[in-house]
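Bug report

Summary: structure tokens for HupE/UreJ family protein differ between web form and batch submission.
Environment: batch mode, default settings.
Steps: 1) Submit the sequence below via batch. 2) Compare with the web form result.

Sequence submitted:
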Amino acid sequence: MHPTRALITLGLALASGTALAHQGHESASFFSGFSHPLGGIDHLLAMLAVGLYAARQSGWQRWALPVGFVVAMLVGAGLGALGVELPAVEAGIAASVLVLGLLIAFAARLPVVAALPLVAAFALFHGHAHHAEMGDGSLFTYAAGFAIATALLHGAGYLIGRQVPQAQWAQRLQRAVGVAIAGAGAVFLGG
């Protein structure tokens, strides 16, 4: 995919779900679970950012971060289903957008022993929030929906990140995207 098309696609994806963000779900289904990460701009940005960040890592960290996020997100939903409360869930989600954006903006490469727990901690908040908006129905099918949507968003971010050329202008553009994501996280934290 041409880098310009990839960035246009990213821009359209970022703008697509804002009107539907965090609507309550009357009945939990695969589709409602699948649509939840797509309908909340905070979830959408964080999940794309995980993929973008993973694309610039080396070796097994490229897949460990997205897989770790999905697993921890499912754990967060499970905690919610068990009635375990997490403090400041929305602030944790907003912080994930801010921090992941900053990691992209500064082209940071944290060691996996720092990056994986960081990403997993953020994912707990996302999973807990997904469960909180589940409504009535099967946790299994709802969780399968949001897990698959999350993996697809990670994959989209990863593919976009891998398609960005190594040219200086492209690296600056990717960093600018990181700044924009971090800026959105800062707005979410202030809101």
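Above is the batch result. After comparison, the two runs are identical; trailing whitespace caused the diff. Confidence is low (pLDDT under 50) at residues 12-25. The chain is about 75% helix and 0% strand.
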